[in-house]
Amino acid sequence: MGRITLDKVRKAFGPVEVIPPLDLTIEDGEFVVFVGPSGCGKSTLLRLIAGLEDVSGGEIRIDRVDATTLPPAKRGLAMVFQSYALYPHMSVRKNIAFPMKMAGVPKDEQDRRIEAAAKALNLTDYLDRRPGQLSGGQRQRVAIGRAIVREPSAFLFDEPLSNLDAALRVGMRLEISELHARLKTTMVYVTHDQVEAMTMADKIVVLRAGRIEQVGAPLELYQSPRNTFVAGFIGSPKMNLIEGPEAARHDAHTIGVRPEHIAVSTEGGQWQGRVGVSEHLGSDTFLHVHDTGLAEALTVRVGGEVALHQGDTVWLSPEADKIHRFDADGLRIG
Amino acid sequence: MARAVSTRRKVFTTALAWGLGLAIFFPIFWTVLTSFKTEAEAIADPPLWVNFHWTLENYVTVQERSDYFRHFWNSVVISVGSTLVGLIIAVPAAWAMAFVPGKRTKDVLMWMLSTKMLPPVGVLVPLYLIFRNLGLLDTRTGLVIVLTLINLPIIIWMLYTYFKEIPVDILEAARMDGAGLRNEILYVLTPMAVPGIASTLLLNIILAWNEAFWTLNLTAAKAAPLTAFIASYSSPEGLFYAKLSAASTMAIAPILIMGWFSQKQLVRGLTFGAVK
């Protein structure tokens, strides 16, 4: 079991309140991702759950037990750190065995679990090496191995993939998702990368300045962002936000249209503009269109092979039912 | 051309380093040499290098007149004892300062260091009186206490510097893995800090071994270590250079041998953290 409940949890460092009172429930078996720009308090929130920081107020319950003042060792959670945090003086085998040794698991049971974890994580050949002799991806696997052998009630991941290169990151992302599908254990995952959030999460928690901006399934956040911050943060490239008369025409202070919901034509359409930089990804092309009179630049997604050049005049037409409307406070209308 | 310049530079720096090394080593070399001369040869002018009558007479006389092994044993007990007691106090203190620093941690560290800037003679009389009243004069216990206190700031500072180099993530990982404070210090912090602790231990044994001011002033006969053993040959009956040299050689030999065998740890410890 791994149900985590935060009840009016608050954290202040001296006079600075980094997390105002906050409520959140993480259901058993859920994959929850905390996402937000750097400094939004997502890592602090994770460390509060872990017990590595003391809460300044409120209550944390793990499986209905009050864990607010329990030390990290007593919470039954496992954590994977961004820096891997392996014990450099121990072999891979001893690293993985350490939590079991602390828990007093019998030796033969330890060996059985180490073998199983090593097999699942492709570490069998490296068990007698020191962490210093491993690559970044292997180290991260050892850290994950160390977390799974103790069979925790929940896993906490603190930006585990940020130190890996792009190709490895995609691979590890898949591995972690598969791990979750297999173990069905609660996972709480912190990242600043909205792609990781979208692809892995059952539930995304978007944070800004310690406050929860929105909680929901990835597609829910994508389709109906609660405010302009979430609208701009979820989705890549960012949603185009337009203010002024065009927004007023839709009875809104701000309207938002995603780059993939705008049709481009060289003959005619709703908004006229001039092509600036285009980014070719192969499968897609992102055009930055200027001089529309709506915003500094609008981003538009078109197919992989387009014959548009810098300076060409184009017409853009947003899909009418995909326009998001926001009021003067940035909150969603309708 | 760049290579030629760098070779010349290499030769120059090598020569300079050897020159400095030999200059530093010379007094020790001369002391050892003098210890094998007769008293007359020891003060001969011009000085004699090797063409004298090599003799072990000084060593025999010194051992006959004063009991070397009693002084040696006192030195061992005092230096090792004060270093171990110091480490037992300093490891938790440095852990706290490095990993749970408070607002005043830096001030406390500076304040501790400031005690090293005090001229010891300034507190000699009060300390002497305290020791006399407590019956600690001329006892090894008394000297262990004094040398522990004298060297504690250095021990704490060295350990603090080593501990600061240990990523706090790893200690947090240990906590997440179910280790309490005792297991965290025992299985994770200490093994990672072994090079630092070893060099702290060695350096402090050397400092305590060589400490002369307090050991000379607070002992008379029973607890007198090798520093007192040397001093007994310097003044009261005029100067006996050859015997003084023999006593000095016997006094520095153990620590010199220990230093020689542990030089790797000493250097590694002293430069620990300089390069990541």
TrEMBL record, chain A:
CDD domains: ABC_MalK_N. Belongs to the ABC transporter superfamily. The keyword Nuclease does not apply. One of its GO terms (molecular function) is ATP hydrolysis activity. GO terms for cellular component: ATP-binding cassette (ABC) transporter complex, substrate-binding subunit-containing; maltose transport complex. PANTHER family: MALTODEXTRIN IMPORT ATP-BINDING PROTEIN MSMX (PTHR43875), MALTOSE_MALTODEXTRIN IMPORT ATP-BINDING PROTEIN MALK (PTHR43875:SF3). Gene3D superfamilies: 2.40.50.100, Nucleic acid-binding proteins (2.40.50.140), P-loop containing nucleotide triphosphate hydrolases (3.40.50.300). Pfam families: ABC_tran, TOBE_2. Residues 4-234 form the ABC transporter domain. It comes from the Bacteria. This is ATP-binding cassette domain-containing protein. The keyword Cell inner membrane does not apply. Keywords: ATP-binding, Nucleotide-binding, Transport.
Automatic annotation (TrEMBL), chain B:
It is a multi-pass membrane protein. Signal peptide: none annotated. Residues 72-262 form the ABC transmembrane type-1 domain. One of its GO terms (biological process) is transmembrane transport. It is found in: Cell membrane. It comes from the Bacteria. Keywords: Cell membrane, Membrane, Transmembrane, Transmembrane helix, Transport. This is ABC transporter permease subunit. It comes from Pseudooceanicola albus.
